[in-house]
Every structure is written in C-alpha cells, then in structure tokens.
Amino acid sequence: MPKREGNIDWDKARARLEALERATEARDTFTDEAALAALDARALLLARPAEVPVLPGSQREMVRFRAAGQLYALESRFILEVMRAPELTLLPGAPPLLRGLTLLRGEVLPVVELAPLFGRPAAQGTGPVLVVGTARAELGLRTDEVMEVAVLSGTELLPAPSSLEEEAGALVSGVSPDGTLVLEGEALLADERLVFELSEEGVA
C-alpha cells in the first residue's frame, strides 16, 4: 500500500515525476524538428519592443499575463522562460497556493497559484507556467495566458488599493490604468508563503 503522509501520496508523486524525467531523457533521441519544437515550448517567445527605449529608474520592461481572471505584470528580468504546456504532478492535501510539481531539465519545480495570495480562489484551468527566479529557477507561476512584453513607466502607476494591503503586502507596487497589478519580483521570491519544504513528511 502506498505510503501516505499529510494526505499526500508521495509514492505516486515520485512515480509521476520519475516518469516525467524518463520522458525528458527520451527527448535526447528526438529528431531535429522535434527538438526545436521542445525548445520552442520553453522559450519566452516574447521580443523586447525595440522601438521603445528603456530608461533606468523611470521605465521597466514587464511581462503581462493573466491568472484566475486577474491581469498581472512582472519585470522580465525575473522571468527565465515560459513553459507552455508543462505536465504537473498534483499533490492532494497540499496548500491552495501549491498547484503541483513539474520537472524543468531534471529539477523539481513547485508551481504556484497567485490568486490565494490576494484572497481569491485558485483557478482550476491549466495554462502556461512562468519560470521565475534570478540566478536559477525558484518557482513557477501558473497562468491563464502570457500576453505581451511592455515597457511601463512608474508615472503611469496608481497606488495599490488599500484592500490589497492586508493580503498582498509588499507584493504589489502599483496598478496600471487598465487594472494590471504590478508585482515586485524581489518580494515575490522572498515571500515565505511561496517557500515549500518538499519531503516525504509532507509539504510545509
């Protein structure tokens, strides 16, 4: 009988991740066309709008995306790549923020939902995952869709609504006129709610 701790079937989760790893290793035998397709699936596929200069301190290059019906923007320097159709291993009993686990080049990556951070229910659909980090991949953000890269000026931002302060804290630096929540990358990566200890004893 599979070993269960904290309502999570870790034997099943490990078996799923091992299957994903074997599939990853099997890609070494892909044809050139299939290999290019696999690389394309992990590419950001979003180009910097060269006609708009980025001025340090006044403008930031942002990736806009939608998750659980809400528009967000995050500086492109925190986004390492986009996984367009990742295979997720779900973890029954895990907190709502943790959508599941996936493999990124043989490394286990936790995939999270943003909505619960803002007091909203998590979406049930699937979509692209933004791989977020600085020197290395630290977590994945599940999205409904990745929309565009845009240059955003600090003068365009409105203060974050006071209703967000209790749930979001320092995660949101402002709101654009179209209602996009502008996320602070450093605060997102430092948020203890998004740090999970993954072990056979459970998810903490």
Describe this structure in words.
- The protein is an alpha+beta fold and 204 residues long.
- The chain has helices at residues 10-26, 32-42, 162-168, 185-190, and strands at 4-5, 8-9, 59-67, 70-75, 79-83, 98-104, 107-112, 129-133, 137-142, 145-153, 172-175, 181-183, 198-199, 202-203.
- Helix content is 20%, strand content 33%.
- A hairpin with a 2-residue loop joins strand 1 and strand 2.
- The protein is globular.
Topology (SSEs and partners):
Blueprint lengths: L3 E2 L2 E2 H17 L5 H11 L16 E9 L2 E6 L3 E5 L14 E7 L2 E6 L16 E5 L3 E6 L2 E9 L8 H7 L3 E4 L5 E3 L1 H6 L7 E2 L2 E2 L1
Keyphrases for this structure?
single chain, 204 residues, alpha+beta, 4 helices, globular, disordered N terminus
Mind describing the biggest β-sheet? 5 strands, mixed
Mean pLDDT: 77
How would you sum up the global shape? globular
Q: How many helices does DSSP assign?
A: 4
What pattern of helices and strands is seen along the backbone? EEHHEEEEEEEEHEEHEE
Q: How are the strands of the largest sheet arranged?
A: 10-3-4-12-11
Radius of gyration: 18 Å
What portion of the residues fall into strands of 2 or more residues?
A: 25-35%
User: Ends: how far apart?
Assistant: 24 Å
Strands, count? 14
Structure described in brief:
This protein has 204 residues and is an alpha+beta fold. It has 4 helices and 14 strands.
